[in-house]
Amino acid sequence: MSRPLAIAFLACNKNPDRFREDPSYTYRCENLALALTAQGHEVTLSHLSRPGWARRPDIVVFHRPQLSWRFWWIQRQLRGQGVRLVADVDDLVFDPAQAHHSPAVLNRQLPLGTLRRRFWRHRQALRLFDRVTVSTQALAQALATEPGPGGAARIFWLPNAVHRSWRTQAEPAVQDRAEPVLRYLPGTRSHDRDFAQVAPLLSSLLRARPGLRLELVGPLSHALDVPADQVQHRPRVPFADYLSEVRRPGIHLAPLEATPFTACKSALKVIEAAFWNHPTVCSPLPDAQRLVGAGACVAATAADWHGWITRLLDEPAAYRAVTWGLRSRVLREADIDLLARGWLAAMRPPEESA
């Protein structure tokens, strides 16, 4: 039997005091760490500026690494000690030629030049790794065109999964019909243009249905032409409190503007809602296609969006068909314990695999 390993996850974002608040780190590192800990391994979660392991790790995962002197020195020292180094990336942040498609640029949060330089640093860092994990198959395909040791063979698809801390929560009863509530939960400030893809349709539906409500949770600028009492907008909550929001009944929405950047994104919103037996009407990103039958109601056109929303609201049989046994179905695609075993088999240092 293989011995337990020491595995470290290093955040590479710019705020060492708040790296655990990053939703990407929560799902890409913390969630995997919880599963690995349950399987008997010694896991540490820390920031690149403050590595916190008690003994030399066997594997170190760099989350979204960027080229810098500190990064270069740490990875060089670890490599010299024989540590298996892994990079993890969950967005198309390594191709400067695609930076103009970034939501941060499109939503005017950062200048294009700043993003291009950041993407270049991501690219240069990723070229140093012989193992890179990605959140979607589309992202794996994009990364496969980039130079790096081992080429495409170094890339491992680790999809996002239901957060392990939720697994102790009882499954809610499946409702006979949908609550007259539409729910959109943007996690960051960069989703204004995404929401704008469906805002006219939502305005029309809300005006036509006085009993229908829209709940927004998170940072979002919008201008819906509807009665104020039909829209509730609450601020973003910490992940520890997010559970109480995502489990509320309703039809979840996950619109995305169609760009090369969003095509590589994960359908995590579908996974989160499905665990609580809630359907999600979503844009046709590639990762959502694998979740058709597990909570994803894919809508490619305005007519599709209208059709899915009205069918789920008005046809109890259609709603039950989508939501019955949904938790079990989504866990077949998004069980972090199963995914962690596959990850470990692929990342375990060669001398530990015998």
What is the topology?
Layout: E1 6-11, H1 23-38, E2 42-47, E3 59-63, H2 69-80, E4 84-89, H3 103-106, H4 112-126, E5 132-134, H5 137-143, E6 155-157, E7 181-184, H6 192-196, H7 199-208, E8 213-217, E9 231-234, H8 239-246, E10 251-254, H9 268-275, E11 280-282, H10 286-289, E12 296-298, H11 302-314, H12 316-323, H13 326-331, H14 336-347
Parallel strand pairs: 1-2, 1-3, 3-4, 4-5, 5-6, 7-8, 7-10, 8-9, 10-11, 11-12
Helix pairs in contact: 1-14
Protein name: Glycosyltransferase family 4 protein
Keywords: Transferase
GO molecular function: transferase activity
Low-confidence stretches: none
Write the CATH architecture name of the largest domain: 3-Layer(aba) Sandwich
Helix share bin: 25-40%
Biggest beta sheet attributes = 6 strands, parallel
**Mean of all residue-level pLDDT scores:** 94
- The fourth-level CATH homologous superfamily of the largest domain is Glycogen Phosphorylase B
Q: Under CATH, the topology of the largest domain is which?
A: Rossmann fold
The gross shape turns out to be globular
| Terminal CA distance | 9 Å
GO molecular function, one term: transferase activity
Organism: Ideonella dechloratans
Keywords: Transferase
Protein name: Glycosyltransferase family 4 protein
Q: How would you summarize what this structure contains?
A:
The chain is an alpha/beta fold. The protein has helices at 23-38, 69-80, 103-106, 112-126, 137-143, 192-196, 199-208, 239-246, 268-275, 286-289, 302-314, 316-323, 326-331, 336-347; strands at residues 6-11, 42-47, 59-63, 84-89, 132-134, 155-157, 181-184, 213-217, 231-234, 251-254, 280-282, 296-298. Keywords: Transferase.
